Amino acid sequence: MTVLDTTPSLALVIAVGVLCGTGVYLLLERPLTRVLLGFVLIGNGVNLMLVVAGGRAGAPPIVGNSPASERMSDPLAQAMVLTSIVITLALTAFVLAMAYRSWQMHGHDEVADDVEDRRVARHAALNAPAFEDADAAETGETLDEEAADVFDDVDDDEDETQGAR
Amino acid sequence: MLPVLLLTFLLALMAPALVSWLGRRAFWVLAIGPAAATGYALANTSRVLAGDLPVSRTAWVPGLQLSIDLRLDLLAWFMLLVVGGVGALVLVYCSAYFARDALGTGRFAAIFTAFAGAMVGLVTSDDLLMLFVFWELTTVFSYLLIGHYADRKASRRAAMQAIVVTTAGGLAMLVGLIVLGVGTGTWRISEVVADPPTGTPAVVAAVCLLAGAATKSALIPFHFWLPAAMAAPTPVSAYLHAAAMVKAGVYLVARFAPSLSDLPVWRWLVVVLGGGTLLLGGYRALRQHDLKLVLAFGTVSQLGLIILLLGSGERALALAGLALLGAHAMFKAALFLVVGGIDVATGTRDLRKLSGLWRTMPFTTAAGLLATASMIGFPPFAGYVAKEAALEGLWHDVTHGGDALATATLLTVAAGSALTVAYGLRFAWGAFGTKRSVAPQVTVPTPVRRQPWLLVGPPLALALMGLVLALTPGVGERLLAPYADLYPKGDPGHLVLWGGFTPVLAVTVLVLLGGAAMFWGRARVERLQDALWSPRGADVVYRRTMRRLDDVAADVTAATQRGSLPVYLGIILVVLAVAPGAIIASGLAGGTTVPVEVVPWDEPAQLAVVLIIAASAVLAARARRRLKAVLLVGVAGYANAALFLLHGAPDLALTQVLCETVTLVVMVLVLRRMPPYFTDRPLAASRWLRLFLAVVTGLVMMGLTIAAPLARVATPISVDFPSEAVEFGGGKNIVNVTLVDIRAWDTVGEISVLLVAATGVASLVFLRQRNAEALRLSSGDDVPPDTFTRRVWLAAVSTVAPERRSVMFEVVTRVIFHVMILFALFLLFSGHNAPGGGFAAGLVAGIALTVRYLAGGRYELAEALPVHPGLLLGTGLFLSAGVGLASLVSGHDVLESFIVDLHVPVIGTVHLVTSLFFDIGVMLVVVGLVLDLLRALGAELDRQGDLSRRELEQAGEGAR
């Protein structure tokens, strides 16, 4: 039976710390492969943390596998972590494909700064519009004066038979 | 009521098809929608008058207390007549107005009809939030209709301005509605009105509601959008910007005035906004040359007057306001339609270019003059009856102890009415009169084309209605007085044609004479207006505000969107370090509710594994060689699996080992195509910053890892999992039962993610043909002939270059492939009671395929499993979700499992749980994922590599 004994073990806590720390260090790098490795390390760390949050080590959560007196580890945390492991695999593959694509297109897999964002920032500093917008340009006329020049696509059929004047 | 509403929206949906089928005649069919609304209102007249109100209540989102509550009280009945009647007539008018081959008629018809539906919903809604929904729908449809000619700049700009202004007001109104709903504890409008809130909530609600009404009904200082909206097609101006949408604000005021008009802030706002708008609109209408703009500013002016009357809180004025609302809908819609007719006939709306139309367009002129007479309050028209009642009520206020505000109101209304007379006459003269400036000889009027009856009939009908209804003022009073009597103050008013020789009659005569004088001396008035300041500040302020807003948005974007991934991630991590970090630090410093305690280890072996993890993680972070880093991370992953095993989680350990293997293989497959070393980067100061952030994050995560388990004080929900797993899930492996039964929804979500990721990988790698055929031997272009005819194991191995082949590996592959597949099946079937399950089984099968691929090259993959991975992924997801649906269909909860014990001869008793099929689905998805990865990151990369190598060689030969 699961009995809640949650005192964490220092060894595991250190493992979480090291995995997350090194993971973060790699995550802040430029090459996408290193970012990905950092992500994998963080993933491992967080999975471990979830397991620790489930309580202390115990017997495998399989009914009848160990004597009833022995404490069982928390199956819920394990089920969640199992899901997380497989998703990490899928995500790893996806980022890897992205890194490969980036290498294929640019010859490297470095995450470059977004040129468009930089351009927007430059224009904002100058208080200039970042894109051409003819609709926002001032025409010197008020909008109601402009409205007077809009005419509808109306019926100008001369041969309308049923007519009145 | 609901069927009428649905009918109109249904017609709107069908409109494009109808237009392409029937052409312009489709408008006749569409007119059925608003006409049905009018018919419904008329059919229920006696019930509404008797107080037996038709009500329709349909729950929509009970959790949000959102329901489609419709209620036809007298005000709704009246609005429904206006909205439906004018809507039907304008739709009929449209059928002759637009050119046969005009572009976008289908879209126009759909939006216009949908707008009519939204309006019907708006006026009949008895739910505060539904009122808002319909309100915003009218805003959106109005935006689309104003911008109907999207290729014209003026239309686009006017549409944008209208939606920005009205939406801003609508949001303010939403605040007001929520304050009302929360303040009274009910969202039903009838109950809110019956028992309104008091104090501060009432004041907030009043101000917010009036802000909504002011933007919608174009009161100052938001009036400027309405004249600009004249860029819309003329039928839109006639319906939305005269009869329907701008009346939504009026409706709102009329709806809440009985309960909120006691507040001083309400009264002041109504008088100032309404009176100011009345004067400003009239003043500016005098100066316009475009007939539509004359009418638009006139509408602004009249809306101010109607709000002033309906918001006053007095019965007599409210009755006058309701009468004016109806009269205005009739005469203003008629006048817009008349202008549309003139536009069609002459091609211009400029009153300086028109002349002598009274002779060439007699019926149109008749309609225009009748409507103008009603507009300027000339007896015996509807406008006259309404204004007479208004002046009577105001005069009564002034003479019966009214304050200065009452006197000012009377003077404002009189002055505004005089302005109305002046611009009304100017309109009639401008549209139909003979002007020497245009035609020097009086006998030559502006040339006109023939006029179809459909362009003359609707305005004539509306104008005549204004006369007929006015001739029987008692009927109007009997119909409208019950609502006006709901107002809190004052004596009931009366609608009469002749009130005797009273001071009010003198005021009316003065108004008419004053207006006529202003028209007579129009040249002098125009000169005076030119000399005076012209009040067009509001739209300049609006545009300046919008420009400033753009600047601020750009600055915010520039400040937050740095375009650098490390900066974004860094910010996220800093937040992670600071927010929980500060709490943990304060807990350490100030003491915690539970004692902080740790044990050194659960098992001594953990310590050794942790050392391995720490060493490999740190080395991986320092590695400059790709492969080294990848392998070190793999070591950390395997070590993690050992920790899981020591923790008592065999399933996790198994999955981790298998996943790590697949990850490692896939990574190596990709890395062989990429440069061996990471790009060298100079040592920068940012590296120390990164290191610092890494250390801090690590420490915070350690703190969280200690805090999270210690903070658990409640009984965990998994405490009953063991017994539930056996009893309901039919399995002993609790983790597996959790995945496929207890929390099966999570798993369905997860395998969907796998499917998406696999598709993403494939689309990133397969550039040209995403659903490429599997690379079979029979289709390969670099396959030696006859290879595929030999039925041998590892048939494709002959396509691998000799120097890459390994006999040892091929032999091992032959031996272990079947064993691995068998093991996968074992894991699948035993997973319910022992470590294993669908995930592990799929991964093992995937690794078996990987081995085949590594030994036999890219053609071997398709020979081993000649199925498209998409098929596996789809089938798997279908199977897993299908099991859930099957139990739903059989009347149980989704994904509920059943336990069947079968007695099979020879084998014995088989303990079959239906969640096995769920697990099979999971396995298929995982196999599909691995196959997709191998196909994309393995086989396709091989092919691309071979291609580029061949191209290189060819280029080399060409150079020689």
Automatic annotation (TrEMBL), chain A:
Topology relative to the membrane: Multi-pass membrane protein
Keywords attached to this entry: Cell membrane, Membrane, Transmembrane, Transmembrane helix
Membrane-spanning intervals of the chain: 6-28, 35-59, 79-100
Location(s), subcellular: Cell membrane
Signal sequence segment: none
InterPro entries: CPA3_antiporter_subunitC (IPR050601), NUOK/Mnh_C1-like (IPR039428)
Compositionally biased spans, kind Acidic residues: 132-165
UniProt feature coiled coil, ranges: none
Region (Disordered): 129-165
Family matches, as Gene3D superfamilies: 1.10.287.3510
Top-rank lineage group of the source organism: Bacteria
Principal location listed in the UniProt entry: membrane
Family to which this protein belongs: Belongs to the CPA3 antiporters (TC 2.A.63) subunit C family.
Name this polypeptide is given: Na(+)/H(+) antiporter subunit C
Provenance organism: Isoptericola luteus
From TrEMBL, chain B:
Membrane-related topology note: Multi-pass membrane protein
Organism: Isoptericola luteus
Keyword Thylakoid part of the UniProt annotation: no
Lineage: Bacteria, Bacillati, Actinomycetota, Actinomycetes, Micrococcales
Domain MrpA C-terminal/MbhD: 611-675
Primary location class: membrane
All copies of domain NADH:quinone oxidoreductase/Mrp antiporter transmembrane, residue ranges: 125-396
Segments traversing the membrane: 74-99, 106-123, 129-150, 162-182, 202-226, 238-254, 266-286, 293-311, 317-342, 363-385, 405-432, 453-475, 495-520, 567-585, 605-622, 629-646, 652-671, 691-711, 748-767, 811-830, 836-855, 867-889, 909-934
Record's keyword terms, sorted: Antiport, Cell membrane, Ion transport, Membrane, Transmembrane, Transmembrane helix, Transport
Domain annotation NADH-Ubiquinone oxidoreductase (complex I) chain 5 N-terminal: ranges: 63-102
Domain MrpA C-terminal/MbhE positions: 689-766
InterPro entries for this protein: CPA3_Na-H_Antiporter_A, MnhB, MrpA_C/MbhD, MrpA_C/MbhE, ND/Mrp_TM, Proton_antipo_N
Residue ranges of every copy of the Na+/H+ antiporter MnhB subunit-related protein domain listed in the record: 809-931
Domain of life according to the entry: Bacteria
Location(s), subcellular: Cell membrane; Membrane
Protein's name in the database: Na+/H+ antiporter subunit A
Entry-linked NCBIfam families: PRK12644.1 (NF009284)
